[in-house]
Amino acid sequence: MEQKTEHQHDHDHGSELSEMQLRVRALETVLIEKGYVEPAALDAIIETFETKVGPHIGARVVAKAWSDASFKQALLDDGTKAVLKLGALNRVGDHLIAVENTPKLHNMIVCTLCSCYPWEVLGLPPVWYKSAPYRSRAVNDPRGVLADFGIALPADTAIRVWDSTAETRFIVLPMRPEGTEGWSEEKLASLVTRDSMIGTGFPKRPGEVA
Amino acid sequence: MDGVHDMGGMHGFGKVQPEADEPVFHENWEARLQALYRAMSYGGVWVIDQARFAREQLPPAVYLTSSYYKKWELGMEKQLAELGLAGADELAAGHALRPGKPLKRKLTAAEVPNTITRGSFARPPQAAARFKPGDRVRTKNMHPKTHTRLPRYARDKVGVIEALRGCHVFPDTVAVGQGEDPQWLYTVLFDGRELWGENTEPSLKVSIEAFEPYLEPA
Asked: How many C-beta neighbours within 10 Å does residue A73 have?
């Protein structure tokens, strides 16, 4: 009952978390004892998600597209091929599709049925992306959703929502912020936020990074 | 199935609540569960649409009140029991009570870097594609009791084929053990007003990724 003591201080969800700690521990023990999984492989998977995959990969892709017109075209033509060629990843799953924001068009990505997300380039999805409010409203109230993120689009910018209902995955190519002429790809990448690649945010402005 | 997982357009869930500096995992058990799920998937015991269908079949009240990873855990327990890989009695006991069944393969730590990528869902086509970009299509008015990837809000609606995305594993059959039955996949674009009515912002466009069996010419 060691786990219970560990979580006695979680006032909000204490009982559920304790229950889940116990359930998952039991699950792991059973699956190891049955010879299905190897503890070291589990550790390696967790380490990968905590330290290797994340939005820094997508940011590199976006910064490259901002800097190199032929890469940008290649990315829009075939996202999987372009990202592989960039060498940001050893491998990338098929069917990655990059969609470009312009002054006239803003793209937003959702999965209304579950939680499909381009995790190879953005890491695991945030809780809000998997939540009922986002999944329900992104497709019929995208401006309201953007307001929840504290941002607004010009009234004459059209909105396009991509519902990820199959194994195709989408990443938004946000607009390059003004005042970044001559910036290196590395410096540009520091402006690219995770949310700007989902379509629920904008890149940072030059003054917001050191 | 017409379950509560099919959330597009539903009202009443409130505001989206972004979390600043969100950690990759909020609790250690979430990380362990994510890893267990992936290791078992590597073992070839289920495919992604079977896992999705297991979660969709959770009782609606459970689905709506469980955290994301709790749904995963409950879905995994259900699948493990159904596949005869681990029983509820063993999970309750916290120990294996019977020997394991042989799996196709077992994930090792050394192999993990090669598996952190999604597999390809593309398959050779069984027939020529029925539609091409620019074609007007109507989605079917269909309500299967089993897994489908045609969301309710986009059924019996007229849209335009925007792109052909290749021929892919068909979720509706693979989820229920009826094989991959590869089908052409399209991006279908709808006007917001076609989906949501006259009070919708005129410029809104929404697309879904639709398998050919979901579509008819319009």
From this structure: 11
